[in-house]
Specification:
The protein has 436 residues and is an alpha/beta fold. Helices cover 20% and strands 25% of the residues. Strand 18 and strand 19 form a beta hairpin. Helix 4 packs across helix 10 and helix 5 packs across helix 10. The protein is globular. The termini are far apart.
């Protein structure tokens, strides 16, 4: 029996297993798309080889990559405002991800020529002494390097530990080299693998302020790090400017403004953890296993929680923002109207910052079960220290619809709560909208 692959199309047609009319239809669709794209008239649309240097990896594109990397970093914890760091602090950089370019898997080998590692980025900003100890390999349980890492951290003012998940470029993945994320590559847990969690614990136990950086392509579930580290930073797989972007955040050159586009669970066993879950009458009764071994039993997941450790839209800043009462341009509307939602946001700190104001909607009474809240808009606004800005977000009433029991998309009459907030669980102000 012939395998059903494109290489075998001639044999499949010849044997009668595949109709030539089906092949003709598939080919005609491809040709139509190519004609529409102008490929036959202009088949070589790329820049000439002698113009590559003037178009690729320019100062402008490198600066843009650094900005994008910086804005995507999420500050998860900042206990006692340990961040931002003083540039004069003596820093120990620890971990197997610290002197490593942690790209995702869809990269070319050439990308590695320009990469800035976390260690490189920290060295470029710091005016103090920067020391490095790897501590362990990414893929190993070997803890023989811990003593050097502990000594390095103990001799410094602060430790930065970089751990997480890793991938490879496509050629390496298909060679079977180890990784924990990538095409056809994953792990069954969301915990740190191998010696990495033990390395983090050993550095925290030195008593030195410890900033943990998760360098990963997905959430990492280590709630004890959230509680015990001095600060926790999430950096999803960056571009070649990742190390510079991380240093910009750690040293306060840039005020973090990134928000999570996915919830982080307490454990892989409590997934799925999406914010827009269906309305239910069941209340949350979380349990917990404490660091000292005490067990507090709840319901749902009896020793954990069905709500996220970090919810959708979450992300801290070095600034603090307060919200005024929310106002609507119209409070009574029809299904075809458009309104503007307005809220004043004040930067109460002494540091300029940016806030992502998020707009959520709750349908108070519906004919079918629907999500408890849904994101319907957002706006990122830069606000100087002490300044107040009015943030306006448009809202189309048509977006408040649902699929009814007859599978028709309708906007049902009734009351809707409109929220503005800093995350899906941090809703600061609201107003009622009535659809007639």
């Amino acid at each position: 029996m012939l395998p059903l692959g494109f290489q075998n199309i001639p044999e499949l047609v010849e044997s009668g297993k595949l109709s030539v009319e089906i092949v003709d239809t598939a080919v005609s669709r491809l040709l139509r798309s190519k004609f529409a794209a102008g490929i036959f008239e202009n088949p070589y649309a790329a820049a000439p080889a002698d113009k590559t240097d003037s178009l690729i990896h320019t100062k402008e594109t490198v600066a843009l990559a650094r900005q994008i990397d910086t804005e995507s970093i999420v500050l998860l914890e900042n206990h006692n405002n340990v961040l931002p760091l003083s540039k004069s602090a003596n820093v120990a950089v620890i971990g197997p991800m610290a002197d490593f370019m942690n790209y995702g898997d869809y990269v070319l080998n050439g990308s590695y020529l320009h990469g800035v590692t976390p260690l490189d980025g920290i060295k470029s900003v710091s005016t103090g002494t920067v020391t490095f100890a790897q501590g362990c390999e990414r893929w190993s349980n070997d803890q023989s390097g811990f003593s050097e890492a502990i000594a390095t951290a103990s001799a410094a003012d602060v430790a930065i530990v970089v751990v997480g998940t890793w991938s490879r470029d496509q050629n390496q993945l298909w060679q079977g080299l180890n990784a924990t994320t990538g095409e056809h590559v994953d792990v069954s847990s969301l915990n740190l693998v191998g010696a990495m969690p033990h390395l983090v614990s050993a550095i925290i136990n030195t008593g030195k302020p410890t900033i943990v950086v998760f360098s990963s392509g997905k959430p990492i579930t280590e709630p004890w790090i959230s509680r015990n580290a001095s600060a926790l930073v999430q950096q999803f797989y960056p571009s070649e400017e990742g190390g510079n972007a991380l240093a910009d955040i750690l040293y306060g050159e840039v005020n973090p403004s990134g928000k999570l586009s996915v919830g982080f669970p307490y454990d892989v066993g409590t997934t799925p953890i999406y914010y827009d879950y269906l309305n239910s009458g069941r209340y949350v009764d979380a349990g917990r296993e404490y660091d000292n071994g005490t067990l507090a039993f709840g319901h749902q997941y009896v020793l954990s929680s069905p709500v996220p450790l970090y919810e959708f839209g979450y992300g801290k800043s070095y600034s603090t923002f307060s919200y005024s009462a929310l106002t609507l341009s119209k409070t009574s509307v029809s299904a075809t109207d458009n309104i503007t939602v307005s809220v004043d946001v004040t930067n109460n700190s002494t540091r300029d910052g940016a806030e992502v104001v998020q707009l959520y909607v709750k349908d108070l009474i519906s004919s079918v079960v629907i999500p408890n809240i849904e994101l319907k808009g957002f706006s990122k606004v830069s606000i100087a220290a002490g300044e107040t800005k009015t943030v306006q977000i448009p809202l189309s009433i048509e977006k408040l619809g649902l699929w009814d029991i007859r599978m028709r998309y309708v906007v049902e009459p009734g009351d809707f709560l409109i929220f503005a907030g800093s995350s899906s669980a941090d809703l600061r102000s609201n107003a009622t909208l009535t659809v007639g």
